[in-house]
Design goal:
- This protein is mostly helical.
- The chain has one domain (about 50-170).
- Helix content is about 65%, strand content about 5%.
- It contains 4 helices and 2 strands.
- It has helices at about 55-65, 70-100, 105, 115-174; strands at about 110, 115.
- A two-stranded antiparallel sheet has the order 1-2.
- Helix 1 crosses helix 4 (about 115-174) and helix 2 (about 70-100) runs antiparallel to helix 4 (about 115-174).
- This is DUF485 domain-containing protein.
- Keywords: Membrane, Transmembrane, Transmembrane helix.
- Pfam families: DUF485.
């Protein structure tokens, strides 16, 4: 017995824009000239109906930006990013100041040819990787789910807006 495929309208993807990369962007013309193919918006193509107005689409983004969910995503980002950036800059400046103001301390040998300055410099790299990991971990746990929900909200509102615009254009043609 053949397996039945699910209805494509019922399938929800993890990301509504997974395949909405810039179509035509960076593609070369087939004439070998190396010039990028110009992308023409659907509204600019002759013989086709125009989509929703840019003002209506902008209204969706403004509505989402004013929403409590968006504000919470931004607040969560700022609560992590601002202290992390300040701490890293203080640590970096402390290293630079110590290297210039305390050359005796920085030149103190720790093990063989390795001195305090070398260990502090390597610690700069380590803290960069640690901060990157902490940022991605924080984003994954605290912001990505809410941001994806906001993306879906925008996607569904845009789809609804486009459907309404095309339906009204079809009615006007009749």
């Amino acid at each position: 017995m053949a397996k039945r495929l699910p209805d494509s309208s019922a399938v929800r993807l993890d990301d509504p824009w997974y395949d909405a990369l810039a179509t035509g962007w960076g593609e070369m013309a087939g004439d070998g000239g190396g010039a990028p193919v110009p992308v023409v918006s659907p509204a600019a193509r002759p013989g086709e109906r125009a989509g929703p107005s840019p003002d209506a689409a902008a209204g969706i983004y403004l509505e989402v930006q004013r929403s409590a969910a968006f504000q919470e995503v931004r607040r969560s980002y700022r609560r992590f990013a601002v202290p992390a950036v300040i701490a890293f800059l203080v640590w970096y400046l402390a290293y630079v100041v110590a290297a210039t103001a305390l050359p005796g301390l920085m030149a103190r040998p720790v093990a063989g040819a390795v001195n305090v300055a070398m260990l502090a410099g390597l610690a700069q790299f380590l803290t960069t990787f640690l901060l990157t990991w902490a940022y991605t971990h924080h984003a994954r746990l605290r912001r990505d789910g809410a941001a994806l929900d906001l993306r879906w909200t925008v996607f569904e509102q845009q789809r609804s807006l486009q459907t309404d615009a095309y339906d009204s254009a079809a009615e006007a043609e009749r």
